[in-house]
UniProtKB/TrEMBL annotation:
It comes from Lithohypha guttulata. InterPro entries: Phi-like. This is Uncharacterized protein.
Length: 246
């Protein structure tokens, strides 16, 4: 894990954004103030390095220095395409969006590798199956907007197949579990909203969903209430670890 970034060489909005990212991705960031380079390490072994000009974000955008996947696979061209697709503009904080796009790129590459392995297994006569259920924990910088809170509580597709808990305020927290396809669709729908920060802290496939105190998606007021409404000590510990409490 990386050390806590030294933010003294950054200033103003840039320093505030780096401080927020440090809270969002504890242990995964390294800021080199002398070189003005931010390095992010994914849980899957990917490494992203961005150079921040002195006048970012007021007048310029981050510059890609390095992007590698698992086993140091060169992902610079793919990362540049993802960054271009974000349509980042000067005077706009974009680091979290870039990090999320890189995270998804590394995960997709890893999944492609796994699927290639499954194809080999199938040729040799072995069979595999996609887990029927999934649990996702999302960390938000905040959840205040009434429409977003309603959407978080009411999946538009196959709503009965998803259970969970939402906590509005600072930070916002979402916990969903149930049918894998339904959970993925609901999280994707939420991700497409405008967020200052939207980070998936846990994405866990399994043969059974998590259980909650309520047989629906429940909104609570505090982090302790989220934990209280998760049934099962193993699941509670997994949640606390995902949000960085344990």
């Amino acid at each position: 894990m990386a050390d806590t970034p030294d933010l003294e060489a950054a200033g103003g909005r840039q320093e505030a954004e780096l401080a927020l990212l440090t809270a969002m991705y504890p242990g995964n960031l390294d800021w080199n103030g002398h070189r003005r380079e931010l390095t992010y390490r994914t849980e899957e072994g990917g490494v992203l390095t961005l150079r921040l000009p002195d006048d970012y974000p007021e007048k310029s955008t981050p510059q890609l220095v390095m992007a590698t996947g698992k086993n140091k696979t060169d992902l610079r061209d793919l990362a540049r395409s993802r960054m271009a697709a974000l349509r980042n503009h000067p005077d706009e904080e974009t680091l979290d969006a870039i990090i999320q796009a890189f995270d998804e790129l590394v995960k997709q590459r890893a999944q492609t590798s796994q699927e290639t392995g499954r194809s080999v297994d199938q040729l040799s006569g072995k069979t595999t199956s996609k887990p029927a259920f999934k649990t996702v924990v999302v960390w938000l910088h905040h959840l205040l907007n009434t429409n977003k809170r309603k959407l978080a509580l009411n999946p538009s597709i196959n709503s009965g197949a998803v259970k969970g808990i939402t906590k509005p305020g600072y930070p916002g927290v979402l916990v969903y579990s149930g049918n894998a396809d339904a959970v993925e669709a609901h999280v994707a729908e939420l991700r497409n909203q405008r967020w200052q920060a939207f980070q998936v802290r846990l994405d866990e496939p399994g043969q059974s969903p998590w259980n909650f105190a309520a047989d629906s998606i429940l909104e609570v007021e505090s982090m302790s209430e989220v934990t209280k409404n998760i049934v099962g000590e193993i699941n509670k510990q997994a949640f606390l670890k995902a949000i960085g409490v344990k």
